[in-house]
Amino acid sequence: MSTINDKLNSLLDLLSDPENPFVDPSVLISTALKIPGAVINRDEFLRRELLKLLPLGIVDNAVEHNPAYAGINRRIINEIANKVIQDETKKVSSLSFLTGAAGPAGIFADIPQYFAFLMRIMQKLVYLYGFPALELDTETIDDDTMSMLMIFTGLMFGIEKAEEGLQTLVTSFTNDGASTYAAAGLVRASLYPLAKETSKYLGFILSGQIMSESVSKAIPLIGGGISGGLTWFTFRRCAVRLKKPLAEIRLSDPKTYRP
Fewer beta carbons within 10 angstroms: which end of the chain, N or C? Predict the structure, then answer.
């Protein structure tokens, strides 16, 4: 048990601020996005998924603007979203079983990997429902982008302040007709307080989740089954929590773009 506690404390130290006993979500997000495969290319993703169901002209329009702008019905986008949620859930659950079967040693690998998959499904969903590409292929994520990531992550964990943040983002894009985050004219002062509040609650939730992960991995092999099952449940719930409000915003409604 001392080995488990040592590894857990080391992980918490890595992800926490010295003055804050809880996990710093921004550190965890940054760490997860450095894992290969965590960053999704928006244009390639949309083109690949939409071409399975729609003609090239509509797909090109969706990639240039967004799926709703191209007139793609929400029903089709919801179907694609459900499929990518299913696919990503299967992948992360399989990985979690393998790291869980490794026992306490798997704690180090599982938490960042799990969050990397959360970042993957987050990007896929926000792109399907109308948001432009997030600038994540950089060494350091800028504050404005991190605020948006915090809002999207907060939605996945059911944090109310994140819902206010989403409305701030949607209002900015739909009012300005912007196609990039910079062009949206986002005022950092309006989004930052909501992101900060979201981060505070998220840190508390994630600290508890890391603790539960350590318990599920206490016994190798048995821990793999428990961990894989918990991951399937929690990951899918997070993805659905994000999908639900995104499917209802004006940004994802084709009617928004009609003259």
Answer: C
Place of tokens 């292929």: 137
Contact 92, 227 (CB under 8 A): no
The answer to whether the beta carbons of residues 7 and 108 sit under 8 Å apart is: yes
Q: Which of 204, 227, 13 is nearest to 104 (CA)?
A: 227
- Report the alpha-carbon distance of residue 28 to residue 21 in Å, rounded: 14
Residue 221 structural domain: 2-257
| Contact between residue 130 and residue 251 where contact means Cβ atoms under 8 Å apart | yes
- For residues 150 and 168, what is the distance between their CA atoms, to the nearest angstrom? 13
CA-to-CA distance for 171 and 250, rounded, in angstroms? Answer: 9
Give the whole-angstrom CA distance, residue 113 versus residue 121: 13
Is the CB of residue 155 less than 8 Å from the CB of residue 245?
A: yes
User: Over the stretch 4-44, which tens digit does the pLDDT of each residue have?
Assistant: 344 444 444 555 444 555 678 898 899 889 889 999 999 99
Give the mean pLDDT of the chain: 78
Count structural domains, the chain: 1
Q: Is the pLDDT of residue 229 over 50?
A: no
Distance between CA 37 and CA 85 in Å, rounded?
16
Phi, psi dihedrals of residue 181, rounded to the nearest 5°: -65, -40
Q: Using CA atoms, how far apart are residues 116 and 31, in angstroms rounded to an integer? A: 8
